Fold this sequence. Notes:
The protein is α+β, with helices and mostly antiparallel strands and 340 residues long. The chain contains ten helices and 19 strands. The chain has helices spanning 2-17, 24-37, 48-59, 86-89, 106-109, 111-118, 174-188, 206-216, 260-270, 329-333, and strands at residues 44-46, 61-64, 67-72, 75-81, 97-101, 104-105, 125-131, 139-144, 146-149, 153-159, 162-167, 193-197, 220-227, 234-238, 249-253, 275-278, 286-292, 298-307, 323-324. 36% of the residues are buried.
Amino acid sequence: xxxxxxxxxxxxRIRSHYVEPIDxxxxxxxxxxxxxxxLDPHSSYLTGDAYAALQxxxxxxxxxxxxxxxxxxxxLKVVAPIDxxxxxxxxxxxxxxxxxxxxxxxxxxxxxxxxxALRGEIDEPVTLTLRRPAEEESFTVTLTRALIDIPSVSHRxxxxxxxxxxxxxFQTHTGEDLRAALEALKGEQTLAGLxxxxxxxxxxxxxxxxxxxxxxxxxxxxxxxxxxxxxxxxRYEAQRGDLTNGVPVVVLINEGTASASEIVAGALQDHGRxxxxxxxxxxxxxxxxxxxxxxxxxxxxxxxxxxxPDDRAIHGEGLEPDIEVELTEEDFEAELDPQL
Length: 340
């Protein structure tokens, strides 16, 4: 009761004395947003354009620069640029901080407004001010917004018998797309080995991550979620039938490998089904559930942590590769890929 009294008192003081008038609806919206965002970096309160943007990204077609963003301590952090998008072509990297969009600093205008500014008219420019963790000075890049139509799965042959599968993010249909890619590969020639590339894959739909892991396993636990609420405690088991017939698998991971992609990598590593190669993954081992509110907004709240088959909780830790191979600044600039 005392806390509610202080809240109402604060609301009244701001309404009466703040230098500019602010309506009650705006103040209460901001209070709700702050309450949810202070829980953890992955819980969110989404209204209007932000909610629509999330729905578009889940389906895989939207307009913008093509980057997965995490809000952390009131700042925007790049989880991963998405293959073939303006963000990837401009050289954005996992861990970059977005300090300003079109000259408007994110700390001033707020993260939701900054996120909205990343989207806009197709073929129109947007300028980002970035700070890279290893560098002291910030720098700017100008990108041209594009229609982002992301194929979640791509494939090709590296050499006869050795296939390459790239999963860019986990959308609602990614499990079906991966199975179709495997069938296409097997229809072309005998599959003797496979490279599964999950680098810079920021995750996405949990069920799609489970479906992809299931394609490589012949039974057993894929992931377990544990939380407090009803339905938060679940075990996801693989069905019988490894679609690759047990061929050797190498999984490429890096600091942009997060969430559902870590579920896949962790399951294959724990079952001895795949060798992880690259650099330690991002470490997002939590599950967010959407709750539609009466005002049309959506609140996403962390309801559970997930655990690998060997009972590893990787949240904040990431997955350690079996073979560590760095991708250096020199490699990146020379467009070399020692990990692959």
